[in-house]
Amino acid sequence: MSWRPTIRSRAETAVGIILRTPGLFIIEYWWRSQPNRHVLQAMDSQTNQFWTNFITHIALINGFLLLLLPIPLIRLLYTHIVCGALLITAHLLSYYLVHVIDAYNGVPIIESLALSLVQMNAIKQISLLVVHVAIAVIVSTLLQGPQKPLLPVFARIFDFPAESLQVIHKFSSAVVVISLIRYVYQWLPKVFSELKDACCQLLSATESQGLASLLVWLCGKLFVPTHFFLFWSIAFIRKLYETTNHSNDWYVAVLSAASAVCDSPVSLFSTAVAVTYMSYFLLSAMKFYLWGNCRQTLPNAPNIQQMHNGWEEGMTTFLLALLTGITDMKQPARMAVLTIILFVVLSSLLQSMLEMAEPVILSLSAYHSKNVVHHLKVLVLCAFLFLFPLHVAYVLSQIFPVDFWLAVVLSTSVLTSAQVADLVIVHCILWYDSLRAEPLESVDEAVYYVRAFTKIVEFFVATSVVVVGIWEAVIGQWSWTNALILLIHCYFNVWQRLNTGAKSYIRRREANKKTSSLPSATSRQLKEHNDVCAICFTDMSSPNASIITQCNHYFHRICLKKWLCFQDRCPLCVTCITRRNQTTQLVIN
After folding, report:
1. Surface-to-core class of residue 181, CB atoms within 10 Å of its CB (0-12 exposed, 13-18 middle, 19+ buried)
2. Consecutive 10-residue averages of pLDDT for the chain (589 residues)
3. Is residue 221 exposed (0-12), middle (13-18) or buried (19+ Cβ within 10 Å)?
4. Rounded to whole angstroms, how far apart are CA atoms 65 and 191?
5. CA nearest 514: which of 563, 552, 553?
6. Distances (CA, A) of 22 to 10, 65, 273, 431, 543
7. Preceding amide of 571 cis, omega within 30
8. DSSP letter at 576?
9. Closest CA to 378 of 387, 368, 370, 388
10. 533-542 burial string, b = 16+ CB within 10 Å, else e?
11. Residues ≥6 apart with Cβ < 8 Å to 413
12. Cα distance between residue 372 and residue 584, in whole Å
């Protein structure tokens, strides 16, 4: 059947994710062990330092191998890791059999206590024998090389002397080491051959496609979102289990667990990936709520689906966390900073929801004039997008003192509510215009003034954030991070808004002057012309509503005014349209 390959491929993908994710845990463990390395080196001897460094670096290499190797080689690597752990376990059990009771000889109280706790009866001896046999069978089957002798177990069962037990234990360990050396000697040529082939393939790929392709391949192998999301989920659940015993409030426990995870670069990137996935799920639910099963019938639906995929929120989380240095903070400062960052991300998420809802709301008069349920559903969403940011701003102002970062969050929330109000008012104007038998001539002016008022509110709110940032710099509570964010805010949210608003006002004023200076078409001219407006494709019957350009083309006055707000040339012949007095002056010259 057709669904079987799909299920099998998904199962293989899931198994691959599960097998590769431990590599991230190994890399994070290596990273966390680095700050304490100098303390351990001061306490341990030189030999212990060498073996500690050797083991940690071998673990780091294995972590990267788990992320880079193909699945068959990863399975082989896991097989060797499991067999190595089993051999170490067998060695420890053998050491336990030989030394655990003999260490207490000569001390009556300790000896009696040890005999009561670790009594070598027949059941325990048989159990240990079964464990050793199972380990020997598993290792011999999986690797087909190293074997685990059972001599120490039989020697303990037959009650050999302590000296003989130690000799037998050392002999068995030597046999295992020799067997391992022989196995490694057999596999070394194959390993070097595989490494040689891999290096040759990488060199040939680099020569043919360039170094950039190699870096892209490495990034694609190392930074897989599903691996980081599974890594974050496991780490978050573990931290949440640890913090639930110390906190009664669920939201405090969740924030504490989420902030406790952000203590290394690996976990910080995984947190950003988790935010991306959560944002994607919320935005997908939003898309389904707005469009349902008829997404392709609405305007700009494919573009909106590609734009809002959650990566903007994830990158915002990662960049803000890097700028604030959250990995170097201690609790509860880390939890407070993460809370502010999450509120910034929430504001960005609400803004994305508003951008998704805007084309749907504006198209209600054309696409859903009879669907009252859909109309009410979208208006309920608008009410939520208007009230929830204000509630978030109020809660934040009650919890935290107002500073620059909080001002950024509050301004974003207020702007979202203002834009929602602007969108609803514009929708009401367009809805009223669609219900009329004849369109309103002043509807464009009304929409323009509503949008202009909203832009003025946005400008003043953005300016208030600049005032807060400058005030913090004056009183000495500034930092390079705040200065960088303030510069970015001044350019994008203040200067660009001011520049865009000024250009829009100048263009509209010029369009009004040009259309006012052009002559109106008479009834006789319209009857002789007997055509529709080339911009809106509707009939031109009203004399005062139609005008004639210098190139002798007929348009609606309102349609041409809208056109001239974006470009100053005729829609039909691309002739530059100027004011009438300017045209006369040009002719005289």
Report:
1. exposed
2. 62 84 86 60 56 76 82 80 75 65 45 44 58 67 57 51 60 69 74 74 74 77 88 90 73 84 88 91 86 55 62 87 84 84 87 84 66 79 90 83 80 88 86 73 81 87 84 77 78 80 82 82 81 80 77 83 82 78 43
3. middle
4. 13
5. 563
6. 20, 11, 17, 57, 77
7. no
8. B
9. 368
10. bbeeeeebee
11. 347, 350, 389, 390, 392, 393
12. 54
How many residues can be counted in the chain? Answer: 589
Q: What is the pLDDT of residues 491-515, one digit of tens each?
A: 777 888 788 878 888 888 888 888 8
Under 8 Å between Cβ of 426 and 451: yes
Residue among 83, 87, 102, 103 at smallest CA distance from 172: 87
Domains recognised in the chain with CATH numbers: 69-221 (no CATH), 225-510 (no CATH), 518-588 (3.30.40.10)
Helix intervals (H) in 475-556: 480-489, 496-517, 523-529
**Token pair belonging to 113:** 């206590």
- For the question of whether the overall pTM of this predicted structure is more than 0.85, the answer is no
CA distance 281 to 288: 11
Q: What is the DSSP string of 137-178?
A: HHHHHHHSS-----HHHHHHHTT--HHHHHHHHHHHHHHHHH
SS3 state of residue 528: helix
What does each C-alpha distance from 542 to 257, 441, 525, 555 come to in angstroms? 69, 12, 11, 11
Amino acid at position 296, single letter: Q
Question: Which amino acid is it at 301?
Answer: A
Tracing tokens 């009438």 back to the chain, one arrives at 580
Burial of 3 (0-12, 13-18, 19+ CB in 10 A): exposed
> What backbone phi and psi angles, to 5 degrees, belong to 552?
65, 40
User: What does the CA dihedral 245, 250, 254, 255 come to, rounded to 10 degrees?
Assistant: -110
CB 222 within 8 A of CB 68: yes
Region at 159 (left for phi over 0; alpha for psi -120 to 50; beta for the rest) = left
